[in-house]
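Q: Fold this one first, please.
A: Sequence and structure below.
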Amino acid sequence: MNLKSKLLAALVLSAAAVPAFAAVTVAVGEPGFYGSIDIGGRPPPQVYNIEPAYAGARIPGAATMYLRVPTDEQRHWELNCGRYNACGRPVYFVHEDWYRQQYAVRSPEQRMDDRRDQRREERREERREDRREMEQRREDRRDDLIEQRR
């Protein structure tokens, strides 16, 4: 089995392990949050890796991502990049201390805004998925009609 086949198999397995719907929402700054960190206008955070990590085929022009990820997932990044929608993208893993002391220190009002924004983004993503499914059903119906006419 060549490296490309192994990576493809790992991506498929990691995608299958990700639940389609999670009932628990954890906001940035709360214990248990792992994911993308928007540094905004802040200086670059303290990171573990000097060079960006890549898993899979590189996406030309992809924006650099700063992620808070459990250590085991960092070690086996090629198996876990799909959970963070980061396969093929340049990724830096932020230091846990930096995250807790510099980034996650936010007022309750700011955390409420973060949760509201996250819920809003989740609803947008659900609507996007609904539109994709609806378009797929339309295409399927078109294909069925074409088949019936033959």
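Q: Good. Now the second chain.
A: Here it is, same layout.
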Amino acid sequence: MPQQFRHRREGLNYDELRTLALKGNSGLRASSLRVDESKALIGSAFNFDKTELYLPITIKNNLAFNDKPLEVFGVQQNFLFPTVYFAGKGVNKANYHIESSNYELKKQILQQALASNYHELQYARQKEKTYSELNALYERFFLLCTTKV
């Protein structure tokens, strides 16, 4: 029997089904993307504010030696205390570990449900095979009983 028809009659084995389920599950793919996102956000804890530039401002109360007001340029950038950045990085790492654990949990639940359903299907197939063999046995027994009379 050709290989392609054998799979259709017998079905896929557990490993092939598991591979298909892991690839095709949209919830698992979304969880994987959240893991990737949280991993990328770990380095974003060190996000500094933009530098602000002040254009010439005339301060009338601050006069130069020639009695003309000073024009002042300004540059400003705010920094937080370093422990704030490291704490943010720790929070991002914790979020990554949570998302990673959540992904692994969803993967395990999917595999467990798939294994349970696969074994239930195998049990039903074996039960069907047993009943069909019993049916054939009873049909032969009935045929033998009716022909001897």
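Q: Anything worth noting on the second one?
A: The chain has a mean pLDDT of 85.
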